[in-house]
Structure formats: C-alpha cells, structure tokens
C-alpha cells in the first residue's frame, strides 16, 4: 500500500516522537538530573557515591551509566534491525522497546538514595528503551515521505516531540513548584511522580502510531533461513551497499564526530548548571523548558534554510555555532550568561537533530522496501558517538574536577566534524550530487 506523503500516516508517525520525547526532557534533561544530584549530594560524602562497591563522582556515574546503556544499544541494534528488515516486523520492535523504556520510567518512582543501584539500573534501561525504539521510528521516514518532503516531515516529528514533552513537563512542573497545593509533604514525591507520569505518557501515546504505521515488508523471500543468521547476512549486505555510496560514506564520519558533542551537551546541561553555577532546581527546569520551546522554532527554521541553501551548508553553519557554544560554556560564570547560552543551544539543538536525520534519509536509496537496517548504521553511529562523548566528559570531570574543561574538550569533536562536513560539501559540488542524494 502506498503511504508516502499521507497526512494521517505522517501525523501518526510524529506522535511517536510526542510519546517518547517526554523521557528525553524529564528524565535526561530536567527533573531526573536535578533530583539525582540533590539526593546524591550529602554532607558526609559531598558529591561522591558508592555504586556496587566503587566510589564515583555522582554526575560522572550518571554519565557512565548512560554511556553503558548506549554501548549496549550499539551492540544490540545492528542485529535486531537486520532481523526486523529480514522479517519485516520493525513495528514489533518499536513496541517492545517502548514497553521497556516506559516501564523503567515507572519504576523510577521507587528510586531513593538507599536504592541507588536499582535506580541507576532503571535509568539505564529507560535509555535503552528510548534509543531502541527511535531507530525503528527513524527508519519509517523514507517509507512515509518522498525525497522532497523528508526535511519537512523530519522537522514535524521533532516539533511534535518538543510540544508533547513541554506539555508533560509543565504538568510535572506544577507538582514540583507547588507540592503543598496538592497536600504533598514528601519532598521527593513530586519528582518521583514525574517519572511515573513519563512512563504512562510514553506507553499511552505510543499506541497511536502503532494503529496506523505499517508493519514493514520482509527483504528476503526465503522462509526457511535461521532468523539470527539471516539478520547477520542482511546486515553484511547493507554494509557492503553503504560502502558503494560515496556521499553517505563521507557524511557518516562527520555526523559521528559532531554528534559526540551535540548529544553529550544535551545530556549534561542540567548537571552543568547545577554544579558549576549552583543554579536551583526550579531555575534549571524552567530554562530547559525554554530550550525545548526554542528548539521547535529551530527545527522548522533549519528545514526552511536547507530548502534554500542545501543540507550540507546549513549543517556547516550550525556546527560552527556549536563550537562557539562550547567555548562560551567554558567561559560562563553567571546565571544570565547560562540562560542566554541555553537559548542559543535550544535553537541549534532542534535544527541539527532534525536536519541530520533527513540528510541521512536523503542519502539512502529511495526504492528499498524496508530501511531498518540502513537506519541502524545511523543510530549505531550516533549512539557510539554518545558513548565516547559521555565517557570523555565524565572522565575529564573526574580528572580535573571541572565540567568546564569537559565542555572545552567537546569543541574538539565539533571541529573535526566541521572539517569533515566541509570535505563532504566540496565532494558534492565536485560531483554535482546535490540533486541526487542516493548516488549509485
């Protein structure tokens, strides 16, 4: 059945972003980081915690747990996406990862300092659920939109995600700001209630795309091949195809390096404000809420700019701004400076995520029946970048006792990504590939 550019299908697809972006805002960016830092900072031990018998800086530990979760995804997704393409059942994997992530968020309701190991395990599993579902969600993009519509559809997905997450964030924010209004006396309850609401919101709204999106189409006609070996064979086949696409080969390394910086900054922003600038929890939640709102505009502005100037040129400009943002973070000393920087980050955050996804989609062959295996390369590239970025950030913080130095190190990743994007742009111009992203 032809579903490309169907408005109902595109809206249903975007609702998956609406559903799971609440995790990205509440758990990775606002309430959970603030709650975690607060309960793990004590008079007796300062910012040090014991985790399975080992001593860590609290924020470095959360970075390491996230890095481990993303590493699991890096190892797991190539197999699962290959099997999904082989069997044509990627929607089932979307549902499975959604349940894993949503239930893990619900379990965070029970997270307190005396259950640190349990809480961080749920934190890691929620990240696996979020990342795992997103790769199959991303793989629908070339299936539901024609080449000329993919920038706009990608931006629409991120816009739905930002709007949905902001709505739930405001609901959670009301409980955090005015607990006495609701008769809440337990100081930890508003935050833990927020984690529960994220899980329910995530699983509930994800039902909408599941009723509309197609199951997927098998890439192999053979019915008697072992599922696991068939998945590996499909993955190898896709890898060989990727190596024949000169533009895609040049884009992935650039995406890898600048993603080290983008994703890490998004995940550590709240902790940076809390530890380096001593900003109160309510101020951090409010500013990151503003970032999300600004990001909606960023995603749509970048989509329009890419129509006028081309994807690669816009990405080069955005990465340049990211480099300046890293340097500014190192120099930031006041709350006002942090707030201004946060607005800038919000604008380029939404833009670079949306444009990166649609650029990759454009570089893919547009006539393949299913794309989960192709998007596994995209997501594995991104998640491996996050592993390295988070580990580097946490390691430099433990080494130097300063997140500022960690932020400065991230600028190096952006510079490498910028140079690779410039090389890609030169290659595109030389080979006149702007009109044919898929190449031979």
Write a structural description.
This protein has 440 residues and is mostly helical. The chain has one domain: Growth Hormone, Chain: A. Helix content is 78%, strand content 2%. The protein has 16 helices and two strands. It has a two-stranded antiparallel sheet with strand order 1-2. Strand 1 and strand 2 form a beta hairpin. Helix 1 packs antiparallel against helix 8. The longest helix is centred in the middle third of the chain and has 31 residues. The chain is globular. The mean pLDDT is 85.
How can the largest sheet be summarized?
A: 2 strands, antiparallel
- The parts where pLDDT drops under 50 for at least 5 residues are none
CATH architecture assignment name: Up-down Bundle
What is the terminal-to-terminal distance?
26 Å
User: What best-fitting shape do the alpha-carbon axes yield?
Assistant: globular
- Radius of gyration, CA atoms, in whole angstroms: 21 Å
What is the mean predicted local confidence, pLDDT?
85
> What's the total helix number?
16
CATH superfamily: MFS general substrate transporter like domains
